[in-house]
Amino acid sequence: MQLEELVSELHKLSRADKLRAVQILVHDLAIEENALLRGTHFEVWSPFDAPSAAETLLQMLEEDRAAGNG
To answer: Which domain holds residue 23?
Structure first.
């Protein structure tokens, strides 16, 4: 079945059946995403070793306020 045909058939469904179809697809996608991410490591940055980060953020906030955005 082509995607266009599938979409056409989905439009014919009742509201409840459309919601169920969405739930099924989201569930399938979540499983696929989880499989893709398994074993992957992500670095988490922390400002703990960046003492200038607070100063930079404060400066940006002050500049934003001076520009009339705050």
So the answer is: 3-66
